[in-house]
Automatic annotation (TrEMBL):
Disordered, as annotated region: 182-248
Name assigned to this protein: Lipase maturation factor 2
Source taxon at top rank: Eukaryota
Keywords: Glycoprotein
Biased composition (Basic residues): 182-196
Tagged with keyword Glycoprotein: yes
Listed GO biological process terms: protein maturation
Domain Lipase maturation factor 1/2 C-terminal residues, every copy: 1-112
UniProt GO cellular component terms: endoplasmic reticulum membrane
Biased composition (Basic and acidic residues): 197-207, 214-229
Amino acid sequence: EIEFMYKPGNVSTAPPVVAPHQPRLDWQMWFAALAHHSSSPWFTSFVYRLLQGKKDVIRLVQVDESRYPFSAQPPIYIRAQLYKYWFTGSAEGSGEGPVPWWRRQHVQEFFPAVSLGDPTLESLLSQHGLKDKTPLKRSADAFLPWLLQSLRQLSRPFSGPAVLWSLYLVAATVSLLRALGRRPRGGAPPARHKGPRRGEPAERGGGEKNGQVRRKEAKEAEEKGEGRARGAAADGHSDGLRGTKKKK
């Protein structure tokens, strides 16, 4: 059985963490399994290239060619089976070893067993227009194809998630270093608080606060004045009473 890098296969293999990478082949195989293989012509071409042993196609299955069972010699026959997968629960273990990650059930044959030169395979290739064609000639001096080919050669030993996370870490490191380089050395001196100049109005908050204090002081002074007036009136009344008593 051919193991893929991302999609479920071996029931004992844990699901990998691929975000933010989007595995093209494994994702398309999930859609292909929802209908007949004739609805996904690319799958016929995929089987054909595996039978031919195309290295670029094999790297879509496994970056590490040692994990591909036909790295030394292409397979003679290939067929595809359709399975349904479920995650297992902790109670599904046998007790003798680790619990498998997956539980699967065979549904049906998805693609018939074919080999190179098989009439069924040749008919499907002709039907979908996937027969080998003369490759387009490219200029040897073109810079963009050379650059893309060089980048592909450099990234071949690594998986998609590893390449993306490496790029993200490099970008984050560069941004952090640039931010640290913009900081002033020695620190900026503390800013001094300057009061309003002569003729300039005070700040709004301070003006409102001073106005409230003034109104409070005026109210207290008014209350004190009323208290003194009442006290004076009371004293005058008592003096009048004393004078009346003396006359009597």
